[in-house]
Amino acid sequence: MSNIILIGAQWGDEGKGKIIDLLAERSDIIVRYQGGNNAGHTVKFEDKKFVLHLIPSGILHAKKVCVIGNGVVIDPKALEDEIAMLKAKSVNVRGRLFISDQAHIIFPYHLLIDELLESAKGSGKIGTTKKGIGPCYADKVARRGIRVVDLMNDKVFKSRLKFILDEKNLLLNKIFRTKSLSFQSIYREYQRYRSFLKPFVCNTSVLLDEAYKKRKKVLFEGAQGTLLDVDHGTYPYVTSSNASAGGAITGAGVSPARIDKVIGVVKAYTTRVGEGPFPTEFSPKLMEHVRTRGEEFGATTGRPRRCGWFDAVIGRHAVRINGLGELAVMKLDVLDELSEIKICTAYRYKGKTYKHFPADIEVLENCTPVYETHPGWKTPLDHIHRFQDLPKNVKKYLKRLERLLETKVSIVSVGSKRIQTIFVKR
Q: Of residues 21, 41, 101, 333, which has the active-site annotation?
């Protein structure tokens, strides 16, 4: 039996979708435990491209069971569209997709407030996707949220929606000087969503507990990455949930004693979307080269990703926070044409050297990265299928990452296709 948490060990967009897809073949159940439709996994499956925002990519494998856990916030319209997209591509979800009755629901006021708050920040904006994720999590913590189970009970739903909407409309009127939202309009719309969601809803914590007792293999997939974790990331430029491994425990309702392994996914370089500190960010010319070769554009927003050298400071942070036992290194082929490759091993700021991730946002925004330089390999990797056949400089680069992060590399990706993946045998 092997229950695995797979998480991003950088700022998200590391290529988790591909690894989840590969590991899903060896799993029985795939669980999404945090975030919302502000994240996306891009998977190429049987010559088709799928971009999934809420449903685990394991849904592409027939007979696999997929779970959306209580730690996820759900926009019913986004989920409905995603299911329709899968159906159009002959992927059936009925009887295979289960949604936690304790997951919180995104409402129109969440999206509107998200947009208004971000616009009001001006130059201090965080770079939110404006999909209502943050305001929904804020309501959850403030005990003003509406869960799936509340939606299923019309009496409870009607009462809570009226109470909450009265408060939101007061905020919209008095603070943002905008029009009120209609109770009847939202109520009728979400009554329809109740009928749509009902066949998928259950107590997923019980479902996972029963699966454990039957010795089923469970794969927990995180959205975003460790450095976007609300507690352990580059706060306040983070997401609103725990994208680290600990989030799988609370976000799925399982015991930590039932987790066998945590695998971290990193790119051979680093990227991030939106605002926030990024010590190893490339110069414009190199940025354009890597961005073009790596197709670095957000799966959810389409925004161009910022790119930079591999950062071992945040890598070590991710290893420690998550207890990573293995690493999957993605997009190694994107660096094929570079004659030199750098790795950041520390930061310097005001005469002090930081080898561990500093929480101080001033340090992160103004530090100078300490680099070591390695020779490139200047040859294509996309045709290689065995670790021993990789060029000498590639193997040296990977070995150096292992030493710096004190974690073994178990998977190497040299292209976007499933067959362009090397499982490292020790």
A: 41
